[in-house]
Task: inverse folding
């Protein structure tokens, strides 16, 4: 293994890597020698952190490297520059982040990995830059993998993404500055809100990966997200319905409707569900989905529609829409997706909705 480290000692990699990354931004035509050296350094760091098939990583060397990466602010520079690196180096960076964020020194008194603690409390810009990786197809997937790992590890990462509203190169909000129950109402300009155009307007692979991270963010830490959506209800659902549910992309549309149904039917989101199904405009959007020419969009739309109909405390606008369309609905629903004969739950739910619509009283004045 010694040949891997002939140019630098095993712990003297972070600083030269940072310097070469800065050169990438400062030079319009970086030299091939500088690029090759950067590729080599990134590869060496990955090998120190994960070891090889023949040699396990050394906890002492890993700890020294992680500490050096923190001191040199290398995590930020890697997140900011990952899109400029060659394909294999981007994959190496993904591995570097994954191992660094999981590493805990032996006999450490802290329950959290030091790199993760550092980023959450003192360098949240790393998380923001990983999110901004979705703005470029080169960095979308490696950044997405790291973000999802972080979201599974730590609710604080989700909180930073949700509440962060800084502009590029500005200081980001740290977890110590966030009180979810007393946070300001969002402007819609923060990094979380950029997921909507990344999902709706990105290349297919970017859109798909961004939606996977978006879904993880909204479903992993339920109490936090419920508070956030409730406080930003109108902004959230205006974006969600207009950009995702009504997206021109079939995949985005279908996935978004399915996720909407999951959000509304989750007990943690009961207050959100009751507020959502009070809206006549939301019901109109949902009824339009039932008439879509793609059966899976119809099917996912049905699971949102049933929440409106099954609600025993329907708002006057929702009652008026259902009653005014009762005859059309009672003609439409019996043959709606009638080929799903083996889906007993769907058949039972459809029959229940028909009975509910039949038994509704007159429209409120």
Result:
């Amino acid at each position: 293994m010694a040949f891997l480290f002939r140019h630098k000692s095993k712990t003297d990699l972070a600083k030269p890597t940072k310097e070469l990354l800065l050169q990438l931004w400062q030079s319009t035509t970086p030299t091939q020698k500088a690029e090759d050296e950067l590729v080599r350094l990134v590869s060496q760091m990955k090998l120190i952190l994960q070891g090889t098939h023949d040699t396990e990583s050394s906890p002492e060397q890993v700890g020294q490297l992680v500490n050096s990466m923190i001191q040199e602010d290398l995590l930020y520079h890697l997140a900011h520059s990952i899109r400029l690196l060659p394909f294999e180096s981007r994959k190496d960076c993904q591995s570097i982040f994954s191992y660094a964020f999981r590493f805990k020194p032996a006999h450490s008194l802290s329950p959290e990995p030091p790199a993760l603690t550092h980023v959450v409390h003192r360098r949240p810009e790393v998380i923001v830059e990983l999110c901004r990786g979705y703005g470029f197809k080169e960095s979308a997937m490696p950044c997405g993998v790291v973000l999802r790992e972080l979201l599974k590890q730590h609710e604080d990462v989700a909180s930073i993404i949700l509440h962060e509203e800084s502009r590029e190169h500005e200081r980001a909000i740290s977890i110590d500055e966030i009180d979810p129950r007393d946070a300001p109402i969002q402007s819609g300009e923060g990094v979380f809100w950029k997921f909507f155009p990344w999902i709706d307007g990105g290349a297919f692979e970017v859109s798909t990966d961004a939606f996977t991270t978006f879904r993880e963010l909204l479903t992993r830490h339920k109490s936090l997200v419920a508070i956030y959506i409730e406080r930003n209800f109108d902004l959230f659902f205006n974006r969600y319905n207009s950009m995702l549910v009504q997206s021109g992309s079939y995949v985005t549309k279908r996935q978004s409707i399915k996720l909407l149904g999951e959000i509304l039917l989750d007990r943690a989101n009961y207050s959100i569900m009751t507020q959502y199904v009070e809206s006549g405009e939301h019901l109109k959007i949902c009824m339009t989905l039932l008439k879509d020419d793609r059966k899976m969009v119809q099917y996912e739309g049905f699971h949102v529609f049933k929440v409106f109909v099954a609600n025993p405390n329907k708002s006057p606008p929702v009652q008026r829409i259902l009653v005014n369309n009762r005859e059309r609905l009672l003609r439409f629903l019996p043959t709606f997706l009638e080929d799903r004969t083996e889906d007993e739950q769907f058949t039972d739910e459809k029959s229940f909705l028909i009975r509910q619509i039949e038994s509704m009283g007159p429209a409120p004045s």
